[in-house]
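Structure ticket #2291
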Amino acid sequence: MSETSSAIQSDRQERRRYLNVRDIFEEACNLVAPFFAPENRWANVTLDHLAYRVVRDHYPDLSFEEVHVLVVAARRVHGGDIR
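Resolution: structure written out below.
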């Protein structure tokens, strides 16, 4: 690795936030999957409010922002509509 490329890499800062959410994402995504299934919609609306509750109950140490990031990302993974 040249000095230039190593200097560029050392100058880069981690731009991603909520790194601890990455560790639990797959498990949390599986927990809330039923709330985004088309057959479980109520008046063609996903049950996001229940997904928030399940995530908060399973991961009480997460902040509101982290819970929100998880639920929104899970909704995207499971094909729920984004408002």
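Closing remark: The two ends are 45 Å apart (CA to CA).
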